Amino acid sequence: MIHLCRVVAALVVLTWGVSTAPALTFNITNQGGATPQMLAAFAEAGALWSAQLKDPITVNVRINAAALPAEVVAHADSFYDPYSYTSVRNALVNDRQSADDISSSNKLQAGSTFSMLINRTANNPNGVVSVTPYFDTGLGGPGQAGPENNNTVRITSANAKALGLYPANSAGLDGTITFTNSAAAFDFDRGNGINAGQLDFVGVAAHELGHMLGFVSGVDILAGNGNAPGLNDNQLRFVTPLDLFRFTSRSIGVGGGIGVNDWTADNIAKSFSVDGGTTPLAEFSTGSIYEESHWKNNLGLGIMNPTVSAGELLAISINDLRAFDVIGYDFVTVPEPSPFVLAALGLGLLALRKKYRRS
């Protein structure tokens, strides 16, 4: 299995974008280790997102190639900022353009705080870092040291730009992506498919850009701090916009309600939903193996799957686009579900799996 990893620094600039109309633009800076072939293929990866999302923002990315740990092929490291839940909810409402936007934002919890199902906290009323979940409302009571994690949303700077919470064309770095310089054989030309035994470089790059754009879950951090002594609930201020649309029947059931997200770190199935959890659309990854910031493995749900096979051509799916839509991005054209595209995403999954992960 192959994982993804991270680093930081800068040099040469390559810009890809559409100059005649508002568009999602990527400024690509070579940290020094990326080859011209990598730079060209990375620009192609940015073009995949720019063809689908029209937000007039500039995303500043630094890329590099370096020796990475065994079985790691690439890694994204994004820059984040905290925003009040009220500001984020208002921004999502103001950004509404699609039916999913309207439905999802209408089901967001009212008020300045949001309730969630949580576990693995130091002050879990069921025991220190217990996996047993409980409802954290931010209003006080057992397992609630304070409301800070209930009134704060942690957002990548690129996602904040799309929501109008951060200057759209800020020159500051939005994140870094490092590719292995030796552990994997990449195919840089996807025009004739991906060669057997090689990995789709453009697809892997697009996947990493997806994390930078905001396909991330703070549950990764909850899980990473899930051993004793752990952290109190109010110290875990890492709920992301995507987490606001992460549900289980237990989070919207007794004790919870429509729009109450499931922010637990366990193996209970968590689903993406645009109607407050009533209708599950696509399952998120759970557990430490494939990380929470991905779709469920082996279901062919989209480019934000946690694994890729040699010879597999990666593609952006309707599930990917619906997720980016509700966290604040806008479509170039409203996509229609394509059974062919969704089926094609699963074709390589029977081959030897290559796993890549953000750490």
Task: List descriptors.
alpha/beta; 17 strands; 18% strand; globular; single chain; 2 domains; disordered C terminus; Collagenase (Catalytic Domain); 359 residues; five-stranded mixed sheet; three-stranded mixed sheet
Strand-helix topology:
Elements: E1 13-16, E2 25-30, H1 36-50, E3 58-66, E4 74-78, E5 80-84, H2 85-94, H3 99-106, E6 116-118, E7 134-136, E8 152-156, H4 157-162, E9 175-180, E10 186-187, E11 199-200, H5 201-213, H6 219-224, E12 246-247, E13 261-262, E14 270-272, E15 282-284, E16 307-309, H7 318-326, H8 339-345, E17 353-355
Parallel strand pairs: 2-3, 3-9, 6-13, 10-11
Antiparallel strand pairs: 1-2, 4-9, 5-8, 6-7, 12-14, 14-15, 16-17
Helix pairs in contact: 1-5
Description:
The structure is a single chain. The protein is an alpha/beta fold and about 350 residues long. It folds into two domains: about 15-80 and about 175-215 and about 305-355, 3-Layer(aba) Sandwich (Collagenase (Catalytic Domain)), CATH 3.40.390.10; about 80-155 and about 220-285, no CATH class. About 20% of the residues lie in helices and about 20% in strands. The chain contains eight helices and 17 strands. The protein has helices spanning about 35-50, 85-95, 100-105, 155-160, 200-215, 220-225, 320-325, 340-345, and strands at about 15, 25-30, 60-65, 75-80, 80-85, 115-120, 135, 150-155, 175-180, 185, 200, 245, 260, 270, 280-285, 305-310, 355. It has a five-stranded mixed beta sheet. Strands 7-6-13 form a three-stranded mixed beta sheet, with no helix packed on it. Helix 1 (about 35-50) links the parallel strand 2 (about 25-30) and strand 3 (about 60-65). The longest helix has 15 residues, at about 35-50. The protein is globular and about 55 Å long. The two termini are about 15 Å apart. Mean pLDDT is about 85; it is low at about 1-20 and about 335-359.
